[in-house]
Amino acid sequence: MNYYLDLIDTTTMGQRYDVTPLFGNYQAFSSLLDDMFALCRDIEYDTVAAIDALGFILGTAIAIRSEKPLVPLRKGGKLPVEVHQASFTDYSGKEKTLEIRTDALDPSNQVLLVDEWIETAAQVKASIGLIERQGARVAGVLTICVDNSPTVQALRERYQILAIAQDFA
Questions:
Q1: SS percent in the chain: helix, strand, coil, step 5
Q2: C-alpha distances in angstroms, 152 versus 41, 59, 87?
Q3: Backbone phi and psi for residue 99, each to the nearest 5 degrees, phi listed first
Q4: Is 121 helix (H, G, I), strand (E, B) or coil?
Q5: Which residues, 6 or more positions from 76, have their beta carbon under 8 angstroms from its beta carbon?
Q6: Model-level pTM?
Q7: Phi and psi of 23, rounded to 5°?
Q8: Which of 49, 52, 90, 162 could form a disulfide with 71 if both were Cys (CB 3.0 to 4.6 A apart)?
Q9: Using an 8 Å Cβ cutoff, are 93 and 149 in contact?
Q10: Spacing of C-alpha 155 from chain mean position
């Protein structure tokens, strides 16, 4: 296992682990980004889409390293322009919304979708729906960790999921 994964805080309250200590260590974060960039090296994409909020940190770094534009997928109600929205129920059972500018992508775009963790796949599925609604294609999904669940398995049948770790514990 990659040494930097030890920096993820697993003593958290609730159902999630906290990856932010990993971001706080420059060398570990740099190694993580090297490994994530290596995972997506063979994927053909021309745009990076990042999911609010921790996905923004990773997606921005991947976009800069790959010299590609970044499209943020924001939490509902944040963008002051016309948007497409998608609702989903997150890992905690709460109803949430993501949104994207209606002009963010075009049908020729091959998109690498980035988030920090895929638990239930609900947020990623909503993001994919927003990307595909604009006619773009999801070339792959990049993450630190992906949990194994029936919804994640269904997602794997249609999309390439690239993860540093599987079922982290």
A1: 35, 30, 35
A2: 22, 20, 18
A3: -145, 160
A4: coil
A5: 85, 87, 96, 97, 98, 99
A6: 0.97
A7: -65, -30
A8: 49
A9: no
A10: 13
Tokens of 152: 């994640």
Is residue 16 pLDDT above 90, yes or no?
no
CA distances 87 to 74, 98, 122, 127, 154, Å, are: 12, 6, 9, 10, 19
Distance, in Å, from the CA atom of 145 to the CA atom of 121, rounded to the nearest integer, reads: 12
CB half-sphere exposure, 154, CA atoms < 13 A: 9
The residue whose two tokens read 């006619």 is 135
Q: Please say whether the dihedral angle defined by the alpha carbons of residues 25, 30, 35 and 41, taken in this order, is positive or negative.
A: positive
Quick: pLDDT tens for 35-80: 999 999 999 999 999 999 999 999 999 999 999 999 999 999 999 9
Both tokens of residue 123?
Answer: 């947020």
Q: How far is the C-alpha of 29 from the C-alpha of 39, rounded, in Å? A: 15
> Which residues have CB under 8 Å from 70's CB, separation 6+?
47, 48, 49, 50, 59, 60, 63
